[in-house]
Automatic annotation (TrEMBL):
PROSITE patterns linked to this entry: GNAT
Pfam families: Acetyltransf_3
InterPro entries: Acyl_CoA_acyltransferase, GNAT_dom, N-acetyltransferase
Entries under Gene3D superfamilies matching the protein: 3.40.630.30
Organism: Planobispora siamensis
Domain N-acetyltransferase intervals: 17-176
Name the UniProt record assigns to this protein: N-acetyltransferase
GO molecular-function terms, A-Z: acyltransferase activity, transferring groups other than amino-acyl groups
Length: 207
């Protein structure tokens, strides 16, 4: 890992999870989950160790630079690294750009426990209450039902008019068609309220 981590800076906390900068010890378990065909079912391919490390390093550099990004997820009780959740500004061309997206990827053993939704609520609270964003989007391959279920649990709304063909994938590719979900700051505040969001997620920030 080329980036120094600064524990405390750029860290969010929920009742069960830390969203924190990446540590060198995360790289091996992250490479293992990125090499798991079930985790990567809705991506074009599994990642090599080099690709996995590059993703972690880029994510960590963004957190170091701006205080937020795709945070490493740690289970507080066990100290286990389980994947990432966080905010990112995609660079590909699409009608809804520029936008800030929320994204997640967890190892299989950590599915089915509400971790992605819990972490994402903290990240959304940060996006709206600390960054002052007007909107956060999320998108995934149409067939990735587990991911769109997280979006709906978060109160995001499917915008069928925003659905798009991912420009990185060729015509006819099984993952090309993507759904677009949106969440406005207004809808977020109506659903949780700034204070309620902090209470609901237990999210705190040292950023
Ligand atoms: C997408 C992904 C993060 C979703 O994970 P998930 O575990 O299904 O989602 P959550 O963490 O929100 O957990 C919700 C589930 O935990 C259950 N759950 C158990 N304990 C819970 C608790 N204490 N609180 C909340 N939910 C809990 C819920 O009932 C729900 O179960 P269900 O799937 O049977 O309906 C995961 O499948 C993944 O990493 N996939 C691979 C990567 C990927 O595709 N990323 C998205 C690309 S755009």
């Amino acid at each position: 890992m080329t980036t120094e981590t600064n524990p405390g800076a750029g860290t969010l906390r929920t009742p069960r999870l830390l969203l924190r900068p990446w540590l060198p010890s995360d790289l091996e378990p992250f490479a293992a989950l990125n090499a798991d065909p079930q985790v990567m079912e809705h991506f074009p391919a599994v990642l090599s160790r080099e690709e996995s490390d590059a993703f972690a390093t880029a994510s960590n550099e963004a957190i170091s630079r701006q205080g937020w990004g795709r945070w490493a997820l740690e289970v507080i009780e066990t100290g286990e690294f389980i994947g990432f959740t966080g905010l990112h500004r995609p660079t590909f061309e699409a009608p809804f750009m520029p936008a800030t997206e929320i994204a997640w990827r967890l190892g299989r053993r950590s599915w089915g426990q509400g971790y992605a939704t819990e972490a994402a609520r903290a990240a959304l609270g940060f996006a709206f209450d600390h960054l002052g964003l007007d909107e956060v989007v999320s998108f995934t391959a149409t067939v990735n039902l587990r991911s769109s279920a997280v979006m709906r649990r978060l109160g995001m709304t499917h915008d069928p008019a925003g659905d798009f063909d991912h420009p990185a994938l060729p015509p006819g590719h099984r993952l090309r068609r993507h759904v677009l979900y949106r969440l406005s700051a207004t809808d977020w505040r109506e659903r949780y309220g700034a204070q309620a969001a902090a209470r609901h997620t237990g999210a705190g920030t040292d950023a």
